[in-house]
Write a structure and sequence with these properties.
Layout: H1 18-27, H2 39-66, H3 72-92, H4 106-139, H5 150-172
Helix pairs in contact: 2-3, 2-5, 4-5
Length: 190
């Protein structure tokens, strides 16, 4: 018979590695908590992340299409900002998608499953709309969409499908009850 979940509040504490504990501390850092303390701030970070993703992909597409080296500089800046926003989102969700399953409690596992399900539905709708646009363009006699190679549509779709769970988790994240938060990983019961 397995142990009651109250004895292992953050998943399977006995199997936690040094890496698991370090990632848990990073994802639950109290110093950056004010950045995503409210739902409005988390929505702002998600919006900034979506905008940075679109801007970086657009810059990469222009770099490919125009073959001009000066676009590398804004792309590098956008990627650094994108990484910071990704870190903020991961912190805002308390590592919901980055921590290993054994480090999450039952509520977090349910939140991760819910975010994955909503992201799957949203990504499916997005891909259906993109396919519909191409089918409609073909039906009216256009060869695809003017000036948009299909490979870039696929790149944007891949990015959206890849990042949608993080965006949804950021939008669905709830404020943590103050008494449940711990800065340190819980020690094993003796």
């Amino acid at each position: 018979m397995s142990q009651p979940t109250t004895e292992r509040a953050f998943g399977d504490a006995k199997r936690a590695t040094k890496y698991d504990r370090a990632m848990f501390r990073v994802m639950n850092d109290a110093g950056v908590r004010p950045v995503f303390a409210t739902a409005g701030r988390r929505r702002a970070v998600v919006g900034a992340h979506v905008a940075l993703t679109a801007a970086a992909l657009t810059c990469a597409g222009l770099l490919y299409a125009l073959d001009t080296a000066w676009l590398v500089a804004p792309l590098a800046v956008l990627l650094v900002l994108w990484m910071v926003a990704t870190g903020l989102l991961n912190g805002g969700t308390r590592g919901l998608l980055e921590l290993r399953t054994r480090m999450l409690d039952e509520r977090q596992l349910a939140d991760r499953d819910r975010a994955g399900a909503v992201a799957h539905r949203a990504a499916t709708a997005l891909l259906a709309v993109a396919a519909g646009v191409f089918v409609l363009a073909e039906a009216v006699g256009a060869d695809g969409l003017p000036g948009v190679p299909a490979v870039w549509v696929l790149v944007y779709a891949l990015a959206a499908v890849w990042l949608m769970p993080l965006w949804v988790a950021g939008l669905q994240a709830r404020d943590e009850p103050a008494d449940e938060f711990s800065e340190e990983f819980p020690q094993e019961a003796d």
